[in-house]
Design brief:
This protein has 388 residues and is α/β, with parallel strands linked by helices. Helices cover 36% and strands 14% of the residues. The protein contains 14 helices and twelve strands. It has helices at 23-33, 70-81, 94-97, 102-108, 133-140, 158-183, 193-200, 202-209, 247-257, 271-282, 287-294, 314-319, 355-361, 366-375, and strands spanning 14-18, 37-42, 62-65, 85-88, 113-118, 187-192, 229-233, 239-243, 301-303, 322-325, 328-331, 378-379. The strands form three sheets. It has a seven-stranded mixed sheet, with helices on both faces. Strands 7-8-9 form a three-stranded antiparallel sheet, with helices on one face. It has a two-stranded antiparallel sheet with strand order 10-11. Helix 5 (133-140) packs across helix 6, helix 5 crosses helix 7 and helix 6 (158-183) packs across helix 7. The longest helix is centred in the middle third of the chain and has 26 residues, at 158-183. The radius of gyration is 25 Å and the shape is elongated. The two termini are 34 Å apart. 34% of the residues are buried.
């Protein structure tokens, strides 16, 4: 008996993605790996002018269309007619100048969810200006929370790009799809990274308002202010992470380390003594020796793993968190669903690899495709040379 391949909970959703970089393609990736029929539309040229940045164009077909030409615009609008979602990550006004803005698309399909991903949003004085994750996180207050007492440090591109950007765009799209079941109408999602980054630190703003958070780094419960919540270097130069906030976890941490203190856990007068004791204790063994020592305990001590090590950790292996793709580790989609397994990620396609086949599956005749190819409006990438 044969089994059907995994489809995912979004298998009835069709998404058109206008190629960009960063959070917009990651949103398309997540929807694709949740089972949606997602197509990435890039400009013809053989090699993507954007490149497959960070593997974010994986798991979906790639169609090459000259969207700056009237005929190319019409190709996209025809695909929009049968789509549920469009995703774009241009600066405000660019899609409108291409003739692919919300009004253009809704004139063809009023049920379309039009997802817009920008740093500053579609409105506001900074909307037309450039920026990056570090700028959006800075203006939202989120960057102020990250780093040492001496200086803020950017936590790579997690806070604004992918947390505040991608995940809020996907949430908006899914919410709009749900609302459409009642209204029958699509709408525009204005997902701004600065908005999302601010939303991500809601708890800290709430704690600041009620007086349980100080508006400076390195003095609060979960920003390194407590000795029982931080990182410590081991004898081999590697690190462990300690998160023993609750009293019972703190007690177990101290018992496993063989240390004790006269002052209570949260008395600032004892912090220097605690920190010195933890530094000395963890510095006496290697990281992996401590990982073995604390295995199975509730002391909340874990090794700080590199990106090379993390995919091989027994817990990550047991849960299948990482797949192997293009010779490296690739995190699988999260979360898990009881209704069935999700499809595994597939390698990114070269620009135009699926142009003919995708358009044929979505209502274009062979004659229309031939005309578009001859005119240079679309491009089909040649088949790759077989590997010896």
């Amino acid at each position: 008996m044969t089994t059907s391949p995994p489809r995912g909970p979004l298998s009835d959703v069709v998404v058109v993605e206008l190629a960009g970089i960063g959070p917009a393609p990651f949103a398309a990736l997540l929807l694709a790996e949740l089972g949606a029929d997602v197509v990435r539309i890039e400009r013809p040229g053989g090699v993507s002018p954007l490149g497959d940045v960070g593997g974010l164009s994986r798991s979906r077909p790639n169609v090459a269309v000259d969207v700056k030409s009237p005929a190319g615009r019409d190709v996209v609008l025809r695909l929009v007619e049968g789509a549920d979602v469009l995703i774009e990550g241009f600066r405000p006004g660019v899609a409108e100048r291409l003739g692919l803005g919300p009004q253009d698309c809704h004139a063809r399909n009023e049920r379309l969810i039009y997802g817009r991903m920008t740093g500053w949003g579609q409105t506001g004085p900074l909307a037309p200006t450039a920026g990056h994750d570090i700028n959006y996180a800075a203006l939202s207050g989120a960057l102020h929370l990250c780093g040492t007492p001496e200086r803020p440090l950017a936590p790579v591109n997690v806070v604004a790009d992918f947390g505040g950007g991608t995940l809020y765009l996907v949430m908006g799209i899914l919410a709009a799809l749900h609302e459409r079941t009642a209204t029958g109408r699509g709408q525009v999602i204005d997902a701004a990274m600065v908005d999302g980054a601010a939303s991500l630190v809601t708890m800290m703003y709430g704690m600041l308002a009620n007086g349980s958070w100080e508006d400076r780094r390195g003095v609060n419960m979960i920003d390194g202010g407590l000795p029982c919540y931080g990182t410590y270097q081991c004898a081999d130069g590697k690190w462990v992470a300690v998160g023993a906030l609750e009293p019972q976890f703190w007690a177990e941490l101290n018992a496993k380390l063989g240390v004790s203190f006269d002052l209570p856990q949260l008395d600032p007068a004892g912090f220097a003594t605690q920190r010195a004791a933890y530094e000395a204790a963890f510095g006496s063994r290697t990281r992996d020796e401590w990982a073995e020592h604390f295995a199975g305990s509730d002391a909340c001590v874990t090794p700080v793993l590199s990106m090379t090590e993390a995919p091989e950790h027994p817990h990550n292996l047991a849960r299948g968190i990482f797949a192997r793709l293009d010779g490296g580790a690739a995190p699988r989609i999260a979360p898990r669903f009881s209704g069935g397994e999700l499809p595994d990620p597939t390698a990114a396609r070269v620009v135009g690899a699926d142009t003919v086949s995708y358009l044929a599956r979505h209502g274009f005749t062979a004659a229309e495709i031939d005309d578009l190819l001859r005119a240079g409006t679309i491009r089909q990438a040649p088949e790759p040379e077989p590997k010896e």
